[in-house]
Design brief:
Elements: E1 2-7, H1 12-25, E2 30-35, H2 38-47, E3 52-56, H3 63-66, H4 74-92, E4 98-102, E5 106-108, H5 113-116, E6 124-128, H6 139-142, E7 145-153, H7 156-171, H8 191-194, E8 198-200, E9 218-221, E10 224-227, E11 230-231, E12 234-236, E13 241-244, E14 247-249, H9 258-282, H10 294-315
Parallel strand pairs: 1-2, 1-4, 2-3, 6-8
Antiparallel strand pairs: 4-7, 5-12, 6-7, 9-10, 10-11, 13-14
Length: 316
């Protein structure tokens, strides 16, 4: 398995948690990491992670990409670069037969190969948001598919898909809804109709997230987490906040049931703590990745927990 991600100095703890999850669930994998800044490249290189290939941003950045940097936030720039990063790996390393992109806050609870087995002869695989009924209205504002997980086969059809997506993101990629576009994400809505051999994953355990876990049945069977009686393969820790080395917020703006916190978030927090401790050992002065606006986050999260369910119900 070839798994790739993007990270910067503020997401390095989450990236390491993803790496730990791959170590515990996959026997044979290569983890490809695009380092968005010198600090994250240096710290990951110093950790000497096995099964890991680090790539500097300069290898992927083109002149057209760099020209977008002035009017985009750090997050928007990462989204802008994402499809070009996938394209770079497909073109530069033809020995990569299939590639799974996962946002750095995606964690594996089962082998990544379980997702690939579903793809058959597809050129690309994408995941629906799978909003529960009470949040179905969100699809109009976020798109049908989530760009946090993208699977591709290294063939001409997949390269064509990713190449167009890359040009689209270079042209427009902002964290706002505008003319049917949102970040890098709503471009995916056209894929199944526009391209041949695009597979929409149907396993519920792929890209489980705060926005859909409330509508799923979570249980542990023989030590394996399951959602709706299928293995939990990947969980997307969207809006997880690291306030300090021992203070965390599960997911700003979402209601996380206590059982989900115990089975999913508690192990993740332990992985984040492990990552923080590991980096502190080699770089005690490293002080990135902590959201220090803890008071605002906590109260904002409490308010959203109360108001959001009513908002989505009315707007849906």
């Amino acid at each position: 398995m070839n798994i790739c991600t993007i990270t910067d100095r503020n997401y390095v703890y989450k990236s390491l948690a993803q790496y730990y999850s791959l170590l515990s669930t996959s026997e044979n994998f290569t983890w490809w990491v695009l380092a968005m800044d010198p600090e994250v490249f240096a710290v990951l290189k110093q950790l000497k992670l096995k099964n890991t290939q680090l790539v500097r941003l300069a290898a992927v950045e083109t002149r057209a990409i760099r020209q977008t940097r002035g009017d985009r936030t750090e997050a928007e720039y990462c989204w802008t670069v994402k499809p070009s990063w996938i394209r770079y790996l497909l073109i530069t390393f033809p020995k990569i037969k299939t590639l799974l992109y996962a946002d750095s806050d995606v964690i594996f609870f089962a082998g990544a190969d379980l997702a690939e087995k579903e793809t058959n002869g597809a050129a690309a695989g994408i995941t629906s948001h799978n909003f529960p009924r009470n949040l179905a209205g969100r699809e109009k504002r976020t798109g049908k598919f989530n760009a946090g997980i993208i699977w591709v086969r290294n063939d001409a059809n997949a390269v064509k898909i990713i190449d167009r997506w890359s040009k689209q993101c270079i042209g427009w990629c902002y964290a706002r809804l505008e003319d049917g576009k949102l970040c890098d994400q709503m471009y995916l809505d056209e894929w199944p109709a526009r391209y041949d051999r695009v597979h929409v994953f149907n396993q519920p355990g792929i890209n489980v997230a705060p926005w859909n876990i409330g509508g799923m049945k979570l249980q542990q069977v023989n030590g394996q987490l399951q959602v709706n009686n299928h293995p939990l393969i990947m969980y997307h820790f969207h809006q997880f906040q690291i306030v300090s080395p021992d203070k965390f917020i599960d997911s700003t703006g979402y209601i996380i049931p206590s059982g989900v916190h115990q089975l999913i978030y508690k192990p993740y927090i332990e992985s984040i703590k492990r990552a923080i401790a590991g980096i502190k050992q080699i770089q005690p002065e490293f002080n990135y990745g902590l959201n220090k606006t803890s008071w605002g986050l906590r109260w904002g999260n409490k308010i959203k927990r109360v108001l959001l369910p009513t908002y989505w119900k009315l707007s849906g």
